[in-house]
Amino acid sequence: MHRTRLAAVVALVLTGLLVSSTPPAHAAKVRARDLPTKAEVVRVFPAFQRVDIGTFPWRTVNHYGGICSTWDQVDASSGQELAGDDLARGRSFRASVFQLRTKAQAKQLFATYRAYVRDCGEHWAGVDTTVQRARVPKLGKQRIGYRTTETFAPEKNLPVRRHFTLVVRKGKRLLILTVHQPKRVKAAQMARLGRLAVRKMG
What residue stretch is flagged as signal peptide (predicted)? Predict the structure, then answer.
């Protein structure tokens, strides 16, 4: 019941924030230069050297809407994503920067990530999933880090999937940075890449 009410409240707030579909004239669009480069990622995570990573426009922001097993979506006024996957080696990388229409909307979207970490410590999302808050350095105006561990049923004989996600708000902009690899992501590496990404996010 609590999650149903929360989902309704979040939906109403986000709907109100998105009434105006036209971004203000003074809002600067997110550019590829507002993201780390592949070379910068590889300096922190050398194992991603062989992963095909590229940058492309991407405005869709995933956010928690009150149900732990699914993500809701809204469109930002602009955005860019640096991403790549190597499923054979169990690695993937996502760095997204979004320009929201108002600071209030950016704050509300950031708040949904805090709610996700609070509400979804253990849940089922096709696999057994645990979420644990992680310590991150002081970045931007608001920040949260968390680790996600996905464990398959023994009969599937599949390795555990480990993710480290960092979400930072800076003004009207939101950075969502996720690293997935077979071994536990080191907090020091994530902090180093996070500092770089926040410096560049605008």
Answer: 1-27
Tokens of 89: 């080696």
Q: Which residues of the chain have pLDDT under 50?
A: 1-25
What percent of the chain is modeled with pLDDT above 90? 80
Q: With left for phi above 0 and alpha for psi between -120 and 50, is residue 140 left, alpha or beta?
A: left
pLDDT at residue 21, as a whole number = 42
CA-based end-to-end distance of the chain:
39
Averaged pLDDT of the chain? 89
Q: Distance of CA 14 to CAs 86, 132, 169, 196, Å?
A: 34, 26, 16, 30
